[in-house]
Design a protein that fits this description.
The chain is an alpha/beta fold. It contains 15 helices and 23 strands. The longest helix has 25 residues. The N and C termini lie far apart (about 65 Å).
Length: about 500
């Protein structure tokens, strides 16, 4: 596949063959910057989903993959990672055209993280220790056999990075996978699958089907009893459907879902750090990031001065063609999402909010054909407003003031979500006190978005169910088994 303007055909990978949809239907994938048709994509049916599960089941039940030693699997995953590095430029261009992510982010963050996901879990599985419990004449130990067939369902906002955050551990621990990428961003999943097969991944171990979640293809992925694990990243609303479907077969689900994270700035913070980090925390990735710091809580003693500086920086951000290396924010993913974001800014004003900067679609020559929205800062709302409670998933920051540490924590925790939190202060005691009481899967202090893949990743409340990362991924993608032997004297 190349990045020329000729649209490509995107098919399902089932076993070692590329198939169109069983009923021949397709849908289009277009560039959100200018509407160029990039691909005609197989629109998965229930039969397609079932066929992919059959291929994954066969590869698991009769193929070599689950029987290989961790070292052998790790060698193949490292070869795939090397191949991803070799194709970094190509994969980055595809990601940027398909989803509007800036090229600097695709090239320097997302695709390198794809390779890192693979290498990290190759290393982990090679080095992980299994526990043993000698107890007199009893010896007990723990085995971690693979769970079986994994359905991996991923979103559009970090397509290949999040798909491989699932695929890499699932494969490393010996499972086989059916991946369903988001319909908005199907390109890199297929190119990755081609690269992985060329690099030595056995056929059937990774299968890819395309289509819309609410439609037929999703049925088998979430409710077929031959599926042993479902790993899902997406919205909290979709998570409910997936959990309901999975419950029929008691299939374990790991769900990484939405967020409405608080970013708290105290008056003792180093503002030369807090301002640019806070800008990145909401406008990086166009606010289409689950971890975005979309509620900015600023201590009242510095609130006015901080907002002025923050809004000034927001207004200066370069919004435009994501293929340009100097662009900070590209287009939103699609028209429907642009309408949703614009609708929330209207709602914010109806709720009494004041738009300090932004608050409009961008329609100039550079933006005319794309789904562009200006970086937006809103003040004057309380944490009870819908704007502050619901996930907008766009470049919209709601600023709320507070006086004390307790008040900041109360506001931060007063949310149905609980994915992440950021805190800027120079008071070490306060930082640790707050981290201990924060209802969030991840807390960053004087930094943002640093990820060590050994750490548990996930959320509280409607942000998540379970954790992945390092040992947490091992627990989810395996069936830990207790073995006890009585030793004869
Ligand atoms: P989405 O829930 O609409 O879709 C996610 C995936 O689920 C897609 O592949 C979609 O086709 C599929 N899907 C939809 N309905 C389904 C169903 N009934 N059965 C099976 N699959 C179904 O989410 P999105 O709009 O693609 O992504 C944005 C959301 O993802 C945001 O809420 C964001 O916060 C969240 N997200 C969370 C994390 C995290 O790690 N917590 C990371 C990235 C994105």
């Amino acid at each position: 596949m190349t990045t020329t303007s000729t649209p490509v055909e995107i098919r399902h990978l089932i076993g070692d063959e590329w198939h169109g949809a069983s009923d021949g239907t397709t849908f289009e994938s277009r560039d959100p910057h200018d509407g160029t048709l990039l691909a005609n994509v197989a629109r998965g049916t229930a039969d397609d989903g079932a066929a992919a599960i059959t291929a994954a089941r066969t590869a698991f039940d009769t193929g070599p993959w689950p029987q290989m030693s961790p070292k052998e699997r790790a060698t193949i995953l490292r070869a795939v990672a090397d191949a991803v590095d070799e194709h970094r430029e190509e994969l980055a261009q595809l990601e940027t055209r398909d989803g509007g992510k800036t090229i600097s982010q695709s090239l320097h963050a997302e695709i390198p993280r794809v390779a890192h996901n693979l290498r990290f879990f190759a290393d982990y599985v090679s080095m992980a220790a299994n526990e043993a419990y000698p107890d007199g004449d009893l010896l007990s130990y723990v085995l971690y056999p693979p769970a079986g067939v994994v359905s991996a369902i991923s979103p559009w906002n970090a397509p290949l990075m999040l798909a491989t955050w699932k695929i890499a551990p699932a494969l490393a621990f010996g499972n086989t996978v059916v991946l369903k990428p988001a319909p908005q961003t199907p390109l890199t999943a297929n190119r990755f699958a081609e690269i992985a097969l060329e690099a030595g991944l056995p056929a059937g171990v990774l299968n890819v089907v395309h289509g819309f979640g609410g439609e037929a293809v999703a049925g088998p992925l979430t409710s077929d009893p031959r599926v042993d694990r479902i790993t899902f990243t997406g919205s909290s609303a979709t998570g409910v459907h997936i959990l309901q479907a999975a419950a029929l077969n008691h299939t374990p689900v790991s769900a990484e879902m939405g967020g409405k994270s608080a970013n708290i700035v105290f008056d003792d913070a180093d503002l030369d750090v807090a301002v640019p980090m806070s800008i990145r925390a909401i406008f990086g990735g166009n606010g289409q990031v689950c971890l975005s710091g979309s509620r900015l809580l600023v201590q009242n003693s510095i609130r006015e001065a901080f907002i002025e500086r923050f809004a000034e920086e927001a207004a200066k951000l370069t919004v435009g063609d994501p293929k340009d290396s100097g662009t900070f924010m590209g287009p939103l993913i699609e028209q429907r999402h642009l309408d949703k974001v614009a609708g929330y800014v209207e709602l914010a004003q109806e709720e009494g909010g004041k738009v300090i900067t932004g608050g409009e679609r961008l329609t100039g020559v550079a933006h005319a054909k794309g789904f562009y929205y200006a970086p937006t800062v809103i003040t004057g709302l309380t944490n009870e407003s819908r704007t502050a409670r619901e996930e907008i998933f766009g470049p919209v920051e709601t600023v709320i003031g507070f006086d004390t540490e307790d008040e900041a924590l109360r506001i931060a925790n007063d949310s149905p979500y609980g994915l992440a939190g950021m805190l800027f202060t120079q008071n070490l005691d306060r930082a640790h006190r707050m981290a201990a009481r924060w209802k969030a899967g991840t807390v960053w202090i004087n930094t943002f978005f640093e990820r060590d893949l050994r750490l548990p990743f996930g959320g509280e409340g409607i942000s998540g169910l379970g954790r992945e990362g390092g040992q947490y991924s091992r627990e989810f993608f395996t069936e830990p088994r207790a073995v006890t032997i009585r030793l004869r004297k």
